[in-house]
Amino acid sequence: MTKPRLYSGMQPSADSLQIGNYIGALMQWRDLQQAYDAYFSVVDLHALTQPNDPAELRQKTRRTAAQYIAAGIEPSRSTLYVQSHVRAHAELAWILSTITGFGEAGRMTQFKDKSQRYGSDATSVGLFTYPVLMAADILLYQTDIVPVGDDQKQHVELTRDLAERFNSRYGDTFRVPMPVIQQDTARIYDLQNPTAKMSKSAESDAGVLWLLDDPSVSAKKVMRAVTDSEGSVRYDREAKPGVSNLLVIYAALTGRQIPAIEDEYAGRGYGDFKKGLAEVVVGEFGPVRERALELLADPAELDRVLATNAARADEVADATLAAVYDKVGLLRRV
User: Fold this and answer.
1) Residue 32 · residue 196 · CB < 8 Å
2) 200 belongs to the catalytic site
3) Catalytic choice (197, 220, 275, 327)
């Protein structure tokens, strides 16, 4: 029986992924790859929408791929590749851009937010068409489900609209994917500003738990995390955002329920609670960090693995693209 297909990816926008990426994406991907024909990409073409040093982008791309593998994404089980290694992504994006309305693309929340923040002169056409490239990423593989954060749901909805529009205009070509949205309880907030989502672009490094941090650094960040003056370990997102954030991290990494953790630390204060969480974080991230550094110590072998997986991705992507070219009337090269 053929497994349903899954696609997802992350940008190589930092030297290390952070705990929000790990809990919100990598842990989920690791489980889903058992039941799905999974395609996971390091979306380096998307990263070009922001200024990058070329050498640093190549380094970040390798480091991101290494962390995928170290976190449990198996290249022999899943297809794990670099987006730019499969040319069909960019080619299909052009075809899809010709059926995407200007107003439709302009309504994408992320584009509106960034263009308002930075101004039109500092906003690229690439950022404007980012969701179209994302649609191409997904539709190339005849994807059934797309695990994404709720901030990307609008982009998957556009993908569905474009698939249905193309199918209506040219005949059945694309599978219409469904988004699988992570639960709100998996949203991870900054340790120093627990009302803001933890981000790779955070102003301060002190509030971000990086997968590749030295274990002692991760422990210190947990111990210095913002809490409150009450002293009780209990979940209350509105009144106690700092403690609630730490409880979510603790629960996500251990698989335990938050009430059980609250009971364990009842009357023990924040010091004991943070110490326990620091041990959990270090215990979880330590093996991931060690494996990622091993992979990065042999870049030729890592590149070989990525090339092998890109060849597998090419087979599926090229078949989809050939069907699309035929449908829209492009002349085949002989």
Assistant:
1) no
2) yes
3) 197
Catalytic-role residue among 3, 60, 114, 275 = 114
Shared-domain flag, residues 158 and 224: no
Is 197 marked active-site? yes
Number of domains in the chain: 2
Cα–Cα distance measured from residue 217 to residue 194, given in angstroms and rounded to the nearest whole number: 19
Tokens 């035929």 sit at which residue? 326
Tokens of residue 320, six digits: 């989809």
What's the pLDDT score for residue 116? 66
What DSSP line would sit under 142-199, residue for residue?
A: T-SEEEE-GGGHHHHHHHHHHHHHHHHHH-S-S---EEEEPPGGG--B-SS-TTSB--
pLDDT digits (tens, 9 = 90+) for 200-219: 776 789 999 999 999 999 99
Same structural domain, 270 and 164:
no
Q: Is position 200 within any domain?
A: no
Backbone φ, ψ for residue 272 (5° rounding): -65, -40
* Residues in the chain with pLDDT values less than 50: none
Range of the domain at 228: 205-293
Rounded distance, CA 201 to CA 90, Å?
A: 26
Q: In this structure, is residue 24 part of a structural domain?
A: yes
Is residue 198 in a domain? Answer: no
Catalytic annotation, pick one of 3, 60, 153, 200:
200
